[in-house]
Amino acid sequence: MSQTRQIARLKTLDQYKDQLLASVTHELRTPLNCIIPMINDVIIDPAIPEATKDLSLKPALNSAQLLMNLINDILDYSRHKRNKLTLNFEEFDLYDKIMEIYRLFEIQCKHKGVQFLLDLSSTVPRMIYSDKNRLGQVIINFLSNALKFTSRGSITLSVEKSSVEDSLIFKVSDTGLGIKREHLINLFTEFGKIDAAEHNSLNPHGVGLGLMISNQLVALLGGKTGIKVNSTYGEGSEFLFEIPIRTRQSEMHQIIIEIPFKLQRHPNLIAQPCQCQRILTVDDNDYNQMVIERMLKKLQFEVVKAFNGADALKIMKDPYKAGLQPCKMATCLYFKLILTDLQMPVLDGLQLIREVRRLPGEIGKVPMILVSATGEEAQVKEGFDAGMNDFLCKPMTEPLLKERLNTYCTS
Questions:
Q1: Is the pLDDT of residue 114 over 90?
Q2: Helices (H), 177-234
């Protein structure tokens, strides 16, 4: 076999590997998209005894989140190998993001009997321009590790403004097991899990990808020195990183380079709003539909369900035949928004978006959000090219869904 044919064959195999990974992670994320929100709903129900929550529900939720973290690590590892880790820069409220993370770990620390402290300096700006999800991913990785290896004492998350440079310092310290000096060198390598009896007993499921991926993410966020570690075995550890304080204007040129598809959104494809509080959800999975419907009804929306793109298109073309009544406005569109899954039989999410955008008049401009279990850059780019307004990755959280609805479902 010639060298040219061998290279072509290897490229083909690599594409098959990526397709297999995308398919497997989609199948794994789909049930978790149902499991995690439903367990969360039951945990916050005051009618459920606390003992039941502590003994059954919280361990089940932690296990589901552990599985989701492993899936995310595998996906990011694959992207890392292909140099396709991407960032999504936007202006966001850092205080809200920190408090969201704090609330996530506050319950877990309380359950383990470990004090969780937050030190957010008053000099830290509230609004920053960065990738809030990737920043949160690094902080969550630090806190997850600290929680695994801390059985008593405290864990502290601190954020402060550097006194030397115009940057922010994020730090997680704990009073846990600590790390021996000879193990520090492998922390940020592929599968660099510490192979020691004490660490394995506290972290039997870890695969050693989290810190390696976090270190690369810190570099992509602008951290020049990467992640720094200070640790004393038997006393605890401290993980920190520093990223520049960015403004929207100063970073726009960088965003064009890193995520060009982000600028291909369709702000003109937003119809004139009507008074209907109706959302069309398109998903072939009954359980996903159930979860989305519960979230939307909490937010006071009426839900119309379609189980593939073809059925959704029929409803869009003839809503009256589907039993829907118009609002009082002359230009009633029947729907505030369409929330569609990507992978479906008959007509998938991308095909549905293209068909809706071909519909005449304002109805062809109804905001559309594509939902996928993988969130691969190529998928997102294809979605924007097709005419979607935004993208959500499974498992979908209620705060994130609410944020998107606030953006597009204006009265």
A1: yes
A2: 181-184, 197-202, 210-220
